[in-house]
Design goal:
elongated, four-stranded antiparallel sheet, alpha+beta, three-stranded antiparallel sheet
């Protein structure tokens, strides 16, 4: 439990939090199974719990062992938290202005800057820890009896958990607010646990050290059981249903959080962690914690890339950016701390000078590494886009000639879409001609190119009001057409892209077997349902990724079910509820090459 050792543990936890947020993006917040990395979906609050645990532990150990600790507490602690937080908020404001053109009013900018509104979702932890720091300072200043102060501090933690629990979630599409969302309370209990452990540390450590071998195994088993039980409770109840179910979820996660902290504690008595990489991250972990979210969400959320690339790009660029900003943030923090505490800022000694040179070398290494990763990513992502832009007219001329001469049942290329992230750029899409009406040609995508539910909510809905219809006609899908191709797309009932109705699906194919659908590698990666068994194939040795796929409901008819084509190619009207995930999306488009 030395400062260096706990710093290494928190650095490892910080990297875990980055991986957790990237995994959430890759799995669609646990919508798609990506074992074994899917475990990171449910591990984030445990990593955050370690930060709370060591914060509570550090406060109580310091106040009990350092005379006059409270005199300089605010001057030392608050700048170390608030300066990085405010600078990260400023970066977020600038990012939003540059990327989205959203600057906001002067009042909004000030609220975002100082954290009254959270432009940075990860900033919630810093707001909460400042509140806990202030509660600690006030209580231990008011009460000379430290046990009374600790008891009241634990009560504050309990009140904060209860209040946050009853606030619910942020409204959809709104910025993050204070005390909203389970991240505000499911790991906070670790702060109280760390403070309690620090209070009874002398007696507890004797027992823990004596039986550390057995206790490590015991806590490993208990934590594993508690973790998987908490995952089960999240799946079964979550935080969106009844209050009773949400409480069951909360208590299961709090138990897992306490047991995880306990396991790390006793494991630390058996082994020590630490290396040059963790030592480097330890010096920038606050900046890394705050900045990585911008790379995960604002910069790369809508950029398609191979999953391994996503981990590497976001992790390396986040570390590189944190390393670039950390020296400046540290200078401002140290200067403000010296001003508030009345102590002169210390300057480099020989040893600190050597350490500074080492940091410069590491900074250079991470800067070069980040530049190489960024350059490679740009080559992978944007060079194919530029090539497509330049070749779009030539591609359209080839497609136009094929469309003019194509007969019903033939296949033609039209547009591009991401079908395999392991290849740079978007791939050409093959369509089946299902109808010809003069110059107009109706095309059905040969493969399932994505996976989706028909509607997010479990409610009766018409096709016109469904989420899938909106998704098909969003920029994410319509970008499959170049500027030349888009000019020749003929909207059908106001939609550029649509689906077949049940009647059209029966008419377009001669048999159920012909109606079976192969899905793309990207659709499979999204968690689209696949089934290699079918009544037509005793065992599908061809490796076909066949899936059931959505059809369009009749106009104006609301239903809790949506029509589908099964993996065997059978058309069914009442098989899948509208919010069933994993159905393949097989678009239909009408093109008039004569326009």
């Amino acid at each position: 439990m030395s400062r260096e050792e706990t710093g290494f543990i928190q650095s490892a936890a910080c990297i875990g939090i980055v991986l957790h947020h990237v995994t959430q993006q890759i799995t669609g917040y646990d919508s798609y199974a990506k074992l074994p990395v899917s475990l990171f979906d449910d591990f984030g609050y445990l990593f955050t719990g370690l930060f709370f645990f060591f914060s509570g532990y550090g406060l109580i150990v310091s106040v009990r062992s350092k005379p006059g600790y409270l005199k300089t507490f605010l001057g030392k602690r608050l700048p170390s938290v608030l300066i990085p937080f405010w600078i990260a908020n400023l970066i977020g404001i600038l990012l939003h202005a540059v990327l989205y053109g959203r600057a906001g009013s002067a009042g909004d900018i000030l609220k975002y800057l100082f954290g009254l509104k959270l432009i940075n979702g990860n900033g919630w932890f810093f707001v909460e820890i400042v509140i806990l720091y202030l509660a600690f300072y006030i209580l231990f200043r008011l009460f000379r009896n430290q046990d009374i102060g600790l008891t009241l501090l634990l009560a504050v933690v309990g009140i904060m958990i209860a209040y946050s629990f009853h606030q619910g979630h942020d409204p959809q599409g709104s910025p993050s607010h204070w005390f909203r969302g389970e991240w505000w309370y499911n790991s906070t209990i670790a702060f109280a646990f760390g403070a309690l452990y620090a209070r009874f540390r002398e007696k507890t450590d004797v027992f823990l050290a004596k039986h550390s071998g057995v206790l490590t195994a015991v806590f490993a088993v208990l934590f594993t059981a508690a973790f998987f039980f908490s995952v089960h409770m999240v799946r079964k109840y979550g935080y969106y249903g009844s209050t009773q179910g949400a409480l069951k979820t909360l208590f299961s996660q709090m138990a897992a959080c306490i047991l995880f902290s306990s396991f790390i504690l006793v494991l630390g008595m058996r082994i020590s962690i630490g290396n040059r990489a963790l030592s480097f991250v330890n010096g920038i972990r606050t900046e890394l914690f705050l900045l990585h979210g911008y790379f995960v969400h604002e910069i790369f959320e809508n950029v398609k890339m191979p999953e391994l690339w996503r981990y590497a790009v976001i992790l390396v660029l986040s570390i590189g950016c944190a390393a670039l900003l950390a020296p400046g943030i540290r200078f401002v923090t140290d200067s403000l701390t010296a001003f508030l505490t009345g102590k002169k800022r210390t300057y480099d000694t020989l040893e600190s000078g050597i350490a500074k040179q080492k940091r410069k070398k590491r900074l250079k290494f991470w800067g070069i590494t980040a530049a190489v990763i960024a350059a490679a990513f740009l080559m992978w992502e944007f060079v194919p886009r530029a090539a497509r832009y330049l070749l779009a007219e030539k591609e359209w001329k080839e497609e136009r000639e094929a469309l003019v001469n194509a007969s019903v049942g033939e296949e033609v290329f039209f547009g591009r879409f991401e079908t395999d992230r392991m290849h740079p750029g978007q791939e050409r899409i093959s369509w089946i001609v299902i109808r010809r009406d003069g110059d107009k040609v109706s095309l059905l995508c040969r493969e399932g190119i994505a996976g989706s539910s028909y509607n997010q909510k479990h409610e009766a809905v018409s096709w016109e009001d469904s989420d899938l219809r909106a998704k098909l006609n969003s920029k994410a899908y319509l970008d499959m057409f170049s500027r030349y191709e888009a000019e020749h797309v003929v909207p059908k009932e106001g939609d550029m892209l649509t689906l077949l109705t049940a009647a059209e699906a029966l008419e377009a194919f001669d048999s159920d077997e012909d109606r079976e659908l192969v899905i793309t590698a990207e659709a499979k990666a999204q968690g689209t349902n696949i089934n290699t068994m079918s009544k037509h194939h005793e065992w599908d040795m061809k490796g076909y990724r066949s899936s059931w796929w959505w059809l369009r409901g009749e106009a104006g008819e609301k239903d809790i079910y949506a029509p589908i084509v099964t993996v065997d190619g059978t058309v069914l009207l009442k098989e899948k509820v509208v919010n069933k995930p994993g159905g393949a999306v097989r678009p239909v488009v009408t093109v008039d090459p004569s326009l």
